[in-house]
Amino acid sequence: MVPGRAGRPGALGRTVRSGNPAVCPFCEGNEALTPPELAAYGRGVGEPDTSGWVVRVVPNKFPAFDGQEVVIHGPGHATALADLAAGVLEAAVAAWRDRRSHHVAAGCGYLLVAINEGAAAGASLDHSHSQLFPFAAPPPAIDRELAAFASGCPLCRPAEHVVSEAEGLVSFCPPWARMPYETWIAPREHAGRAPFDRALAIAIADVAARFRRVLGAEVAWNAIVHDAPLSAERPFHWHVELLPRLTVAAAVELGAGIWVNVVEPQRAAAELAAG
User: What is the pTM of this model?
Assistant: First the structure.
């Protein structure tokens, strides 16, 4: 229960968001509107909380969990990841890597990395950003995956319904997709922890661009990195789950825990691959 988050923009309905760069707390020149930064990239020797940066990391002003952080994608008011200036997403992914190292040193057991784009995906500010959630122990979804990986790795099998592949990463629409056009990114080779490198940035940007071309410029989506716990080595195959928010969870999903997907993964993959 986090009643303090009721004060965040669009907390009740995700409909009130700031589209004006003059008052956007994530735009360059408005650094005073965020909590003091935790890290910045591209500024060089400038003072903290001043302009000149490419990516900033700040505490979430309305955290759902202690230590929650926001990674701001670029100084300009780009409202979609597909519109980011060259190099910004790569810098953001490098920030994920650096902040993960920080949280490992601080004794964090798990770091969840996620992107919410669009009001329907839960984003309360238009300016493109990602979020980092440090946990003392793996959250329930990761615990379930750890149990599944312990009995064998389904992601080590050849991927079905491939959308694209580059630099050892394959994007595909899994046969178990819960939502229309749900797409996963995973390495061909078994690896427990995401490297947070340029190849991953390119793969995420590629899927985001395909979502836009096939599903429209206003499509909302979530991306969540699933990788191994930080506190102990356990069987895991890291992956990124990208979920367009085209449908709404209703009675069957909420009441029975059964997802009803109205677009077959093979059709989704064919359309995204062509797009």
Answer: 0.93
